[in-house]
Amino acid sequence: MISERTSFQFGNFELIPDRQALLHHGEAVALGGRAFDILTLLVRRAGETVNKAELFAHVWPGYLVHEHNLKVNIGNLRRILAACDPETDYIVTIAGRGYKFVAALNNVEEAPAKPPAGSSGLRLTPPPTAPHLYGRDDALHQIAVRMQQNGYVTVVGPGGAGKTSIAVAAAQHFRAAGQPVAFVDLSTLNSSQFVIPAMATALGISLGLDDPIAGVIALLRAERPILIIDNCEHVITTAAALLERISHAVPEAQIIATTREPLRTRHENVVHLAKLGFPDPGAITVTEEALQYPAVRLFLAKAGRGDDADLDPGYVQAVASICARLDGLALAIELAAGTAGSFGAEALTELFREGFAAMHRGRRDAPLRHQTLEAALDWSYRLLPEQEAVLFELLSVFAGRFSAEDAESIYAAGLLDPMTGRDALGQLVAKSLVSADVIAGALRYRLVESTWVYASQRLLGSPQVDLAKRLFAARVLARMQEAEREWSFLTAREWLGRYGEQMDDLRAAIRWAFDPQGNARMGVDLVVAALPLWQEQSAFQELLAALEQALAFGNGGDLPPLSRARMHMAQAWGMTLARQVHPQTGEAWRESIQFANAAGDGDLALQAVCGEAVYLAYSGRPLTALRSMLDFARSADVEWSKAPGGMRFLAHDEIYVGRLASADARLQFLRQSWGEARDEQGLSRFQVDLPVAINLSSSLLAWLQGRSELSVELSDRAIARAENLNHMISLGNAICLAGLPAAFLDGDLGRAEDLQGRLAEVARRESVGIYEGTALFFAGAIAAARGNSNGLDTMAASIEALWANGWRLRTSLYRCLLAEAWLCAGDPDCAIRALKPLLDCRDAREERWSHPELWRVGALIAAHTGQTDRAQRYFRRGLHRSQTMGATAFMHRIKASTAELGLGLD
What we know:
Layout: E1 8-10, E2 13-16, E3 21-24, E4 27-28, H1 33-44, E5 49-51, H2 52-59, H3 67-84, E6 91-94, E7 98-101, H4 137-147, E8 152-156, H5 163-174, E9 181-185, H6 195-202, H7 212-223, E10 226-230, H8 236-249, E11 254-259, E12 268-272, H9 287-290, H10 294-302, H11 313-325, H12 330-340, H13 345-351, H14 373-382, H15 386-394, H16 404-408, H17 418-430, E13 435-439, E14 442-446, H18 449-460, H19 465-486, H20 492-499, H21 503-513, H22 520-536, H23 540-552, H24 561-576, H25 585-598, H26 602-618, H27 622-636, H28 644-656, H29 660-675, H30 690-704, H31 708-725, H32 728-745, H33 749-766, H34 769-785, H35 790-804, H36 811-824, H37 828-840, H38 851-864, H39 868-885, H40 888-901
Parallel strand pairs: 8-11, 8-12, 9-10, 10-11
Antiparallel strand pairs: 1-2, 2-3, 3-4, 5-7, 6-7, 13-14
Helix pairs in contact: 1-3, 4-5, 6-7, 10-11, 10-12, 11-13, 15-17, 19-21, 19-22, 21-22, 22-23, 22-24, 23-24, 24-25, 24-26, 25-26, 26-27, 26-28, 27-28, 28-29, 28-30, 29-30, 30-31, 30-32, 31-32, 32-33, 32-34, 33-34, 34-35, 34-36, 35-36, 36-37, 36-38, 37-38, 38-39, 38-40, 39-40
């Protein structure tokens, strides 16, 4: 027989059915309406087995409900009781029969506890406890403003964005004193027919009424509670109709609905829940800045690191990167943080390097759809109509952002006509499964990483996967061919802004093309068309790997000469600008020239000849390089003024061979025509932005001419432009070939140290051998100049590494500086040994610009070893060579040395 008691006590709990209240230690426990009804029946029948039919009749009278709903509510009830008292089992399952309440009831019936604040005797289902929110002040303000307007507020956002939490927080924060809050959870409903019973039950409205919603309307008018209706998306049509009816009848009612897409009714006031703010994934973020972002703070709090006063900067940077990859999605960040635990920075980065499959389940009392990220996405996916589900899968072929036209190119794989496809895309955006942003005035779409992974897995099991990837690769090829055409007339900044973000899609398309199931011929075309993109972004290692695949296809035999010329030239550049000059670099340059001539493309042949000259100069043969360019120019009738990139390198090479006057004339012309250009159309086609290249060469020349102030101005201009373009090869050249050596030779160690650090960072990012060696050399030179003898060994080691890796250019100057540093340290024998390899090298004769310095240092060694006559003879030769070239800076260094030694040159 069912007990008629009005209050039940068990353990530290008190159940008061008339007031719809469960207390623990006198404090209200948040319990949904169905869970409360189940608990009430079980407690009243304590010690008895209550079968499932009785529970369905009590909790869902007159409705057909799937057994899963009962299991879910029993599970939630157990978790809530266990959270308060983990030591006691209150409800047990009787296999095949039902459930039993097994805890002892207290015999003494105490006076009912005071009902929770704001209950007003109403049987309202209270909301769950809201967690601490991060970065939601703006959203709370928007909700507050809209709650003061007629109609209801809809909080819209993707699954796991925190819609429920902010709705509850907003209701608790903005309710008036004593104002009740009711919570309707629609997530467990498997049919829209249960929406009305769920809403009525949550508000304590009798289901025996002919029109329970009329009762809801009457209660909202009389008691004015704040009503939260959670998770409307899977019963959206019914929910929208009911909310429209209620809002029309009670426009002043305060109602907050949560959903993954707008309900689109007349009385709806939408608040789109933005992602949590996170740092720019491409930026190096200092800890203080990172902690200003709510996504980072949420991660740290959930990982148990929120109170750490001294966080490792590397750990914070790793956290910032993870938050960016998860696109600020609160649920995903919580799951990742819970998985990370006490991992260090390196382990944390490694944990999620290949994706987020390693993430653990969420908290036990969370809804099932929030237990894992996959479950949250499953929830949304299952609600999609067929055409939207198909398109959602297809869009995973895009690795980065895509346009509406890109999406349309793959519709055929899902048998979608353009109109259906465009509508499906719009619906996916509305349902928060696809992000849409306006970038540079154009609408661009993307799937965030976690959603992309889910959609990709769905596509893998789909029959349309092969056709989708083929259509995708064809679309990427079309974009790359368009980019290739525009490379010749768009500025570098415009071109990279338009095509720079295509790199991820390009990689995916090439990966598919050279797969056994792909199309290698299309892969070759992709590689050829994408050469400008790799070169503009200085991605030489990736370029070489792609070229190796492409050239291996049929041994390149069926490729037209023009394509082969471009591929070999790109390969040669990649080899030239590697950490170590590849032994096949010279052959690659010769092949590029051969195929350019075979194709009859004079401009490409000139680029190849000048590129080979760069390689020859870097390997210590600038005179050979100069002769090669001049011979080609005569045979091909080249007009240098119409080939500014080639003319610039010709002038730079003339500096190295000591023809400063000719170099000066060329650079003056180039500065007037190109040096002040705000933006240049593409790079100079020699891997360095043309105005940067002109200014760095002019800076080196100005220093040699004794105009240090102008040299600094020009190098600063080159460095600033390269940084503004974010082009690392241009920046590396500006520092390595002009700014850093001049600063050190002028004795400005502060400036030299700053530039050395910046060059070391470029070397770290780009792995270009000449940058690494030069940065290391000057690190040692600066240390030695400041009295640290360890710097001498660093200088020597860096020279040997440069030489061994094929980077011979300028090592003659570096050996002179090392030899002089040994003299300053009082060791003339080491100074002699430092110069000997230079004296034994035949190619050193080609690098004539440094000869005055060689004679000067040779004279210093002679003077230190008591050979005064030889020292004077060497000084005179160095002075004569400086005067002949017009290298005023070296003349001043020679005169300063003779004055210091007290030697006359008359």
